[in-house]
Amino acid sequence: MAMDRNTRTAVVCLSILAGMVGLTYASVPLYRLFCQITGYGGTTQRAETAPDKVLDRKMTVQFDANISDGLAWRFEAVQRDVTVKVGETNMAYYRATNITDKPVTGQAVFNVSPSEAGLYFNKIACFCFTEQTLQPGESVEMPVQFFIDPSIADEPDLYKLKTLTLSYTFYPAPEAQALAPAADAAKVN
Question: H-helix or E-strand containing 24?
Answer without folding.
Answer: helix 2-38
